[in-house]
Amino acid sequence: MDIKQVHKATCHCGSVELELRMPNGLEDARRCSCSMCRKRGTVMASVDVKDLMVTRGEEFLTLYQFNTLTAKHYFCKRCGIYTHHQRRSNPYQYGINVACLEGVNPYDVENVTVTSGIHEPGEGINL
């Protein structure tokens, strides 16, 4: 798996395109146990907020928030694919959908941990 220092990510239909600075490759590859992530089932990695740029299709991104309204989950309005979210546990980072990374198969990512998002304060509500 070749993770470039500057990597492109897109939604399924290609309407949304992100540019990610990833000098250390995939960082913090994980799945989360919160109610949203359990239903989404995505392998995520982290990038600093400053290292994610929407290079095309910002008008096609839609925002979903729930419970404490802290995390900001972004999806393509056209195809429905989750591309990234501003993390509740660290608002200075985005969680990115590894499956959206160009040329990356999320099933090839090794050592994916499961974080206990359901046990974060205020996260006991399943919506």
Describe what you observe in this structure.
The protein has a single domain, classed as Metal Binding Protein, Guanine Nucleotide Exchange Factor, Chain A, CATH 2.170.150.70. A 5-stranded antiparallel sheet has the order 4-9-8-7-6, with no helix packed on it. It is built from 1 helix and 10 strands; from the N terminus they run E-E-E-H-E-E-E-E-E-E-E. It is mainly β and 127 residues long. Helices cover 5% and strands 35% of the residues.
Task: Describe the secondary structure blueprint for this structure.
Blueprint: E1 6-10, E2 17-21, E3 30-32, H1 35-40, E4 44-48, E5 52-56, E6 61-64, E7 72-76, E8 82-86, E9 93-97, E10 113-115
Parallel strand pairs: 3-10
Antiparallel strand pairs: 1-2, 2-5, 4-9, 6-7, 7-8, 8-9
Helix fraction bin: under 10%
So, CATH architecture? Beta Complex
What is the beta-strand fraction? 35-45%
Q: On the 0-100 scale, what is the average pLDDT?
A: 88
Question: How many structural units, i.e. domains?
Answer: 1
Which structural class do you get from the secondary structure elements?
Answer: mainly beta
Q: What is the tally of beta strands?
A: 10
Total number of helical segments?
1
User: Helix and strand succession?
Assistant: EEEHEEEEEEE
Give the CATH class.
Mainly Beta
Report Rg. 14 Å
Major sheet:
5 strands, antiparallel
CATH topology: Metal Binding Protein, Guanine Nucleotide Exchange Factor, Chain A
